[in-house]
Every structure is written in C-alpha cells, then in structure tokens.
Specification:
rod-shaped; alpha+beta; four-stranded mixed beta sheet; 4 helices; 15% strand
C-alpha cells in the first residue's frame, strides 16, 4: 500500500509540474502577444510621428520647391502655419516704395498637403470664403518621399 501511495503522490506531483509549465507557457504567450502589440503600437507611433515631422518640414521649405514655384514667387510668400500654411501677396516683391508704376497686389492662400492629407473643416470653410470673394486658394499636394529619394 505504501507503493501505491508513493506512486499516486509521484503522479500528482508530475501532474502539478506539467500543469504549471502549461499555464506558464500560456501566460508567457499572452505576455509575448501584449509585448508584441506594445512594440507594434510604439513603432506605428514613431512612423506616424516621423511622417508628421516630415510634413511640417516640407511646409517650411515648400516655397523653394518646383511645384510651388510654378504658381508663386518666393519673395511674395509669407508663412502662417495655421490654419492655412501661406499667404501670398502676389507682386509684392516687385513693389517699390514711392513708385507710381507699382503693380497691383493680389492675395492668395496656399495650403500644403502631404501624403493622403485632406483639408480640415476649418480649411474648407476658409477655402469657401476665399472663393466667394474671388481670392485664390491653392492646395499643393506634395510627395515628401521625393525628398528622401531625389531623382
């Protein structure tokens, strides 16, 4: 009878050990999934942050880039940042104080969008107000990846 007791005790101990390792493995797997999700979210956040920073930089340098220069003279542009990126005072760079032959100054608003960016509701309202007053409102969609891979 003693051998049956010890055999049962050994089987019980082995069962507890097996159960412990199964539960530990399951728990470790859950922790791995949580850790993977955390790292994935962190990487997505970094990627999003990098894109946002690239977009902000692109907004600052946009007036010297070809797609902007086709529409507006660099000397006529003033950076606002928010809610619209730029105000253009067309012909301002040709204006001379005291001259009677100065060109007429015209206003334009310019919004730079990168990636799949769209106008916010406020920007759409400003664009609508510009159209009703016949003030140009340009949207320039730029490819910021071209900054990383110049041709």
């Amino acid at each position: 009878m003693d051998s049956d007791f010890y055999f049962g005790l050994a089987v019980g101990i082995v069962g507890i050990i097996v159960f412990y390792f199964i539960m530990k493995r399951s728990h470790d797997s859950e922790l791995d999934q949580i850790e993977y999700g955390y790292h994935k979210a962190l990487e997505n956040s970094k990627t999003s942050q990098r894109s946002s920073i690239k977009g902000k930089i692109y907004e600052q340098v946009a007036p010297i880039l070809p797609e902007f220069a086709k529409l507006h003279n660099f000397g006529d542009v003033r950076f606002l940042g928010s809610p619209i990126d730029f105000v253009v005072f067309k012909n301002m760079s040709q204006f001379k104080e005291g001259s009677k032959d100065n060109p007429e100054i015209e206003l334009a608003f310019v919004e730079i969008k990168t990636g799949s960016g769209e106008l916010s509701d406020l920007q759409k309202a400003i664009k609508k107000a510009c159209k009703s007053k016949e003030i140009p409102f340009d949207e320039i969609y730029a490819d910021i990846d071209s900054l990383n891979n110049p041709k």
